[in-house]
Amino acid sequence: MLRGCLLAAFALTGPSALAAPLPSPADAPTASALSPAQMDQAWQRATARYEPERKVLLAKVAQGDAMGPFRPDWISLAHYRAPAWFGAAKFGIFIHWGVYAVPAFANEWYPRNMYDGRTREHAHQLGTYGGLTQRGYKDFVAGFKAQHWDPAAWARLFRQAGARYVVQVAEHSDGFAMYDSRLSRWTAAKMGPKRDVVAALERAVRAEGLRFGLSSHRAEHDWFFDHGRELASDVNDPACADLYGPAVSHFLQDGDQDLEQDWTYVSPAYVGDWLARTAELEAYYRPDLIYLDWWVGHPAFRDALAELLAYYFNHGSRRGGVVLNYKLHALPNGGGVLDVERGQLGGIQATPWQTDTTISNDSWGYVAHDSYRSATSIIQLLADVVSKNGNLLLDIGPRPDGSIVPQEQVVLREIGQWLATNGAAIYDSRPWRVYGEGPTAPAAGAFKEQLARPYTASDFRFTRNKDMLYAIELGWPDDGTVLIHSITPADRVQDVRLLGSPTPVRWQSTGQGLVLHVGARPAGPAAFVFAIRTATDTP
């Protein structure tokens, strides 16, 4: 009987799709039987065939490190500056699309949690598909067909949404590459869609005049499937190790954001493979941006991370500059562009930064019966982030067939319509002397979105663009009168208009601030932009 990773994939249509194979010793739990080093050695043996190509890629990295102007050390890398295009772009689209869209349950960490006996994902997996010796994560690959995928239609939608750059997940923590990796057979080019998804989307995105980026979540693949070793599952099968990775125990002592207290085993071989697989993105796709998930901040990756950055920045400097996004404290300040996941910062930053969040209320990838954020909430977030010198990277999760959920499309187009009218306050803008005013200040830091409170008509965010000051009101006054305290007589206001409205705005400059008589609320999302001209360029 065909079984295990030798199948690679079969059509998964439900619990009765294939008769359950008999358990085999290869499925037996190994968490207590093997040391982390032995787990890693099994992965090394399973991927040994790719060693020649790894050496080729690591040689490319070494050559790039020697090119200059950057060296692979942190003193040199601290001289990095984000290219002008990134600071001007302000809004991008993130795409989490992969095999995890097939089960379409909970979120994109289903591949990990389906093996954890304490989770609802595990209960769902057993109740829907049977035991983990019968259905492992590998068996979802056949259901990831992308049969309705149209990369050109995606790119048009992203442009209509007002995005200036697009970031595709090249490889999530599940170990399945969405590009034609030379270091794995578990790729979209060889299985599932049997297309180089990254290459096709890159061409379509650039054809629409947008910048193209890629993300890698490969670092945490070292331990991502560790729960599969705690029970009978295909993660224990050495024949599957080239997909499931070392699957060593994730051993941390102070939460997963404090990587100084993460003692998970990481072999030099795994770090070298991570460096080669991440270098593939630059070597073969030339992305304008690379986004690295947080676990690259683990101390084991520090030297390899410096090598990657020097290689990427040196090549990127020859095409106008590139962006490297990092989280938390994975890099020293200035070594890349900080990304704050599901959160905001508390004030104006001296250098560009980025918030990334998802249009879904629950998941970065597609899940069935999901709920979605409103265009208003996303536009208000965009205004807050841009007022502090940041960008917003908004994620969507397409279905496994390549279609984008209609409700996501509606929200994206509503954002695009708002930007078509109000984009002067966003694109190419810079912060004003204060980022905003009002009673609603978002909690600063990553993963603080759940603490957000609704904005009011007294909440404003400010930007400047050329000779114009923009005040973005995040609500509308019931009495039709607005008071902006931060704009004083010393600013010498000359004219005020509401973008998108032909009706003049009556205004008065008083000792309390700028008073606007605005009347009835216009249609559209609750973010209303007043363009304010002053006698001089107000600092």
Automatic annotation (TrEMBL):
Source taxonomy: Bacteria, Pseudomonadati, Pseudomonadota, Gammaproteobacteria, Lysobacterales
PANTHER family in the record: ALPHA-L-FUCOSIDASE (PTHR10030), ALPHA-L-FUCOSIDASE-RELATED (PTHR10030:SF37)
Limits of the Glycoside hydrolase family 29 N-terminal domain: 59-423
Protein name: alpha-L-fucosidase
Protein origin, superkingdom: Bacteria
Signal peptide span: 1-19
A Pfam family it matches: Alpha_L_fucos
Cited Gene3D superfamilies: Glycosidases, Golgi alpha-mannosidase II
GO CC annotation: lysosome
GO BP, sorted A to Z: fucose metabolic process; glycoside catabolic process
